[in-house]
Structure formats: structure tokens, C-alpha cells
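Continuing from the previous page...

OK, I double-checked the sequence for Aspartyl protease against my notes and this is the correct one:
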Amino acid sequence: MKIAKKWLIGIASFALLLALVPNVQAATKKKAAGKVPVSVNKVLKQLTQKKKVSPNKYIYLDVVLKPKNEGQLSDKVMAVNTPGNSAFKQFYTPSQFQGEFGQPASVVGQYKPFFNKYHLKSQSFQNGLIIKVSGKAKNVNKAFSTNLQTAKYHSNPVQFSSKKPVMPANLAANVLTVLGITTVQQSSGTLAKKQSDSSKVKAKYAPSKFTSRYQLQPLYDKGYKGQGQTLGIVTFADVTKKDAEHYWQAEKISTKPNRISVKKIGSQASVATNDAIGRTETDMDIEMSGAIAPQANIRVYQANFSDVGLVNAYATAFDENQASSLSMSWGISEYLTHYLKSQRLLTPVYAKVLNLVMAQGALQGVSTFVSAGDTGAYNYGIGGKIGPFSLPNYSTYGTFPADNPWVTTAGGTTLPFKRTLGNYQISVNKERAWGSDYLFDMYANNRKLFLSNFSAYRQLLAGGGGGISHIYGTPKYQEGVSGVNTFNAREYVSNLMQPRLNPVLLSGTDYGRNYPDLSADADPMTGYQIYAAGKWQVAGGTSVVAPQFNGATAVINSGKGTRMGFWNPQIYQLAQDKDKTPFTVLDSDTNNSNLYYTGQPGKVYNQATGLGTVNFEKLYDAYQ
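Thanks. Re-ran it with the corrected sequence; updated C-alpha cells here:
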């Protein structure tokens, strides 16, 4: 159930190092700890209700060290994941990653005595890039010469320092940035894609719909059910094991007992993510992945959603190197990253930091899946005001980190169905991109119904995420693939969030990381049943698909006896081979939209559904 609130249009601590005062004088023998934005004097004037952070408040930071050999990292990821290369399947260990790309132990070891001096706890990851630091705010201030404060920025809570974080020059020389000094919280509405409640299990909403439609059942028939594998779930809300166990039992899925373990990761909260919606999301991720791979272990990495929490959840998973596949169903609008940068609240290196971590996972052979989003090609930004009225900023912004080049991004489709809603019959005749434009005729004839029901109106704006990133460039595995960086589109929704009937077909070009990569059923109209908080619900969203792909990977790994690794280099090769492709391209340019992007007839890729849907039996046979 991909939810806009969980897409956290307010990722805290994305604004990393505020530069509000001149550099510390050389006589102090200290230097700025990593990259900082330019002046933020303009923003400083807009901060209100400023006060000091409580001295005893517990603060979590990441000191991120500069990588070595960064220019070689992309080629190495491609090499170990591309058939025919001499390094193919020679996956790294965390210590091997450190040896080639991280700082050596002799450098990392210099930081612990410094933090001990200030009564701060510190722990380094094996990758040689990240040192977790935690302790009381008063000790953080002493160690980094900061003055942590809280304030409001356009009514949004902010934690910041009016002094740049500094460290002794010999330590600062190897620091890329410090995460967690500044936190910015943006609020947003939710888009829960719950179709209905149900008091009992219904077969038409069972996970077997996924396994039968996408040909995973033949792998079960061979005895491959995820045994010997661990799949990982990255989440930012509570875990309720008993809900998942009840779900599998009620669905009559024979699962491995005591299979769920939880790794709690300390990080300060930027946004309240531990609400009922967050817990439901976590339940669904565990239930879906575990249903698809019934004999796999499940390792849940639970943190608070912040810059520190997001990085540390993945870094912990790759540091443990237990899970051979991971999925995550959270993200934010790319707009926010650009906005905060323009306001001098965002260091430009956060995307780089996460990219380094994700590349580590791909080098280690971990298959990582991220949901593409549930608001179609659109995302929300920060709008303006006319008097007391707020105006939306709603456009085709990308989604972070679904746009990351080292993850396989899961998009959404709608399955064929017919249904009567009130006096109106709606139908979808074939599997298509998930976009609620098939409801627009009904809207045109029943405007009063939709305009008087906010939940129904929000459903009109739902669809599978997809587009072209303006943070990350086009990765090598997408270069030269037909349909990548070209697009067909129909503007089904105006920038004032009004449905449009019969929009004209547009065509164009763009450049960046195109996403999603693959798609499967995500529409709540043709969705899946889940069990959360003592209730059965029918839900949808691309956050159903990512954990399903996660589970399917564990199934394939259990059959092949080796990690699939990072999918994308192989799947883009296979998609271009007409004899071997295991994908069904959804390339029609009519009735096949994620509310903006649509199919490109005859081309391998489109931004509404990526390479299309998967035949897992064929994928198993063709994938090396």
C-alpha cells in the first residue's frame, strides 16, 4: 500500500550541513567536516520560534568518509552482474568493498578516540565509509563546535546549527559529509489505496494470483520455495509478527516457523512514521514477500525515516550480508531535493552517499527492489499561496530512491476486470499500466459523487510511479535500449489536479535514469488481501510489487543455489533478445497510462511499466 505520507515528502535531515557563519579560524586547527551548502542567510531570516535543542536530547549522526577509486565503482558493479564478463558473479564481501572503495582501518580507527573524548558512541561499518555516532546534544555540540537548535521553516519543524560542524583538520580531511546535524520535516497527505474491508479470506485476492499469473508456480512445482535464503525488508514503522503469521496461516501457506527477525537501527525520527498506516505498510511488505517465498527467512531492518535512518538501514543490511534480496516501499519526491538545495538547506552529496551504499549492495550480489510510487508519474511539491488559499505544486517529478541506478524499481499494472460502481460499469479488457484514467468517464458523468467524496477523488489520481530522473543520469544498462529517454505521454491530470478527458498524445525526449524497470499488478481494484491490526483489507500499490519481486528472487536463488545479484544488467539484455525475453511489453499508447506516460508501440521500454511484466519460469531459465 504505497502511501503518500510514507513517501515522506519531508525526509528529515536531507538538509545536511547549514553554513551560517564564516569558517573557523586556522588557529583552531579545525576544518569543516565535509561539504556544506553555500550561504543560507536568506533561509535563516525565515526561521521562526528558534530555541536550543535540549542538552540531553539523543542525537544520531553519520560521519561519511570519502570513497576511494570512486570512478571505478560503476564499472565494477556492471562487471560482476553482467554475463560474459570475467568478473561475472564474483560478488564482493563488505571487507572487500572496503579494501577497494572505502577508507582503510588505519584511517577509520582515528575517529573513535576523538568521539570517546566527547562521550559519544561510535561504530564503523565494514565498508570503511560510514561511522555511526550517537550521544547527547551537548556532547555533539562540543565535538563538532555546533549549536544545535530547533525552529520552524514555513511551519515545518527544523533542527539546525548556526555553526558549521568542524573537526580536527586531520580527521576532517577524509570526511565527505555529516548526516543528521540538520533535519527538515515536511508534511503531506496520505493516499491509502484500500479498496474495501473484508471479514474473511477471499481467493480472488490471494497471493496465488501473482504466482499463477506471472508463472512462478512452475518453480514451486520443482521444489523451489526460498529455502536456504534470507530476504530483507527495509521499513520505518513497527513490526507486528503475529499479523504476518496469521495471514500465512489463513491463506493456507505452509511457511517456515519462527522465520521473522528484526534488526532495530537507532536514528532520530524526522517524521512520525510509526502510525497505523506505517504499521500496515510493514505488515503488507512482510506478508507479501513471505507468501511468495514461504520457506525463506525474513530479516526486517527497522529505522526511523531520516537521512541517517535511510542510509543506515541499507548499510546495516549490506554489512550483515545475510539477505540476498531486499525491498523497500518508501520514498520522497525529487522536487523536495531540488527545493531544499535551492534554499541552501540541502547538501548536494546526499544522493551520492546513498548511491555509494546501493552500489555496495549490488557489488555484493544483493537484489534490491524499490516501489516506484502510487501517484502515477506525478509527485507533489511545495506550492505558493494567494491570500489564505494554498496552491498545489503537482507535476511529473521523479521519486527518490526509486530513481537510483543500483535498484530494480517496481511499477504497477491493472489486471482485466469488470465492476459496477453505483449505476456505472467500468471495465479493463487487458492488462495495462496502472492509471485511474479508466475512471474518468465515470467522473465526467458523476462529478458530484467524486467532488463530495475526497477518498474517491484521490483514487482518480492514483497510478503506478514512473518517469525519468533528474538526479541520476542514464545508467549504462539502459543506454541504447529502445524507448529509454524517449517517451509518449498524455496529460490526463492538470497541474491543478483536475482530470482531463481524451488528452492528445505527446512525444518527446529526456535524459536520466528511466524507471520503473518491471511491473506487476498494483491496482487496488485488482489488488491483494492483507491482514493488519486485526482486520482483512484489500489493498494495492507498487509497494505490493516490490516485496513480491523480493520473494520471487528468493525462490529463484533457492533453485539456482547462487544469488541472482543486481537484476538490471541482465534483464535489459534479455529484453532486447526476442528469443529469450521473459517479459511482456505493454506498449500500447491508448488505455495504457500511468496518468502521463504511456506505451511506445514497438519499443522495448516505456516509463509507465518499464520492460513490462515477468514470466518467472522463463526468467529462471534465461537468467545466468
